[in-house]
Predict the structure.
Amino acid sequence: MKKTIYIVASIILCIATLILCILYPYWNPSHLTDEPIAEENKGLTLHFIDVGQGDCTLIESKGHYALVDAGEYKERDKVISYLSLLGVRTLDFIIATHPHSDHIGGLSDVIRHFNPSTLIMPNVESDSWNYVLDAADERGVICETPEPFDTYQIGSATLTVLSPASDEVYSDLNNYSVVTMIEYGDTSFLLTGDAEALVEKTLVKSGFDLSADVLKCGHHGSSSSSSDAFLDAVKPQAAIISCGKNNDYGHPHKEVISALDDRDIPVWRTDLLGSIKATTDGEKIYISTNDTTTEVNQIPTEAQSETAPYIGNRNSKVFHLNTCSGIKDMQDKNKVEFLNREDAEKAGYKPCASCKP
Ligand SMILES: [Zn+2]
Ligand SMILES: [Zn+2]
């Protein structure tokens, strides 16, 4: 009898463990992430959400969230489910960079879903605002027009508005784009909406410190933005371009790609890679997609990644010398490259017992 109870109890325990193992990734919203920065050290993550031809950036720091734009109306469900999957319940604020549908089309539903307390928008009239303002009104959202140097807190990160001044008048709506610098620790990220060379020139002339580790290229990589003087002032170590696959505008334009290339600035594109995340602990920045994780300024070019001396396995969390036979059968999607041992260990990887890296 006792034996039967033991057997039954063991079977129940095994089944329970199996169920827990299967369900665990779904309980933990961070299963979406794959950065080698330990969860507790993550200070700031920017999610460049793939909304086709449009813009949508989620800023996340210490359980607080803010959104910059929400893509076209047809992308709204994608945005809402991306945020929901991350566990976002509410947004501290939303920035609507400028009244073009590829930026604010999805915003009214996002406002209704996530009830931000504040909506930040430039001082420019347009009928395109109507749906957004209706939703804001319905939910009692405070609408604010920012001025340069206004700052907003998102968890431990600080967002500073650089442009436009509220009395500025432009002939092109793109130039009203709210331009923001987001900082955490020693790292910085510059978002420019669809601001064009005219605004870039004003910013460079203004003497603001525009240097940023990561630049989200203006206007979906159009040659109307990312002027030489601006790129030289920002000096980014990585560039993000948000645009749709085979879009009608030919974004990103080849002039921008070659200007970035000339400066050895690696580019991550949503049309090629889907949604992209940049995560920082205040010192290092890792950019990741579904398939890869790269530390900014460590492994930017293909030539370097071929010679990365250490290769980790995402699944086993073991790292090897790049000559180890243990990496031969490793699938490319499981590979993560490290330039030195410390980085691998900091990322939680253990040395391989046979090649002893
Ligand atoms: Zn746009
Ligand atoms: Zn625009």
Observations:
- The longest helix spans residues 2-27.
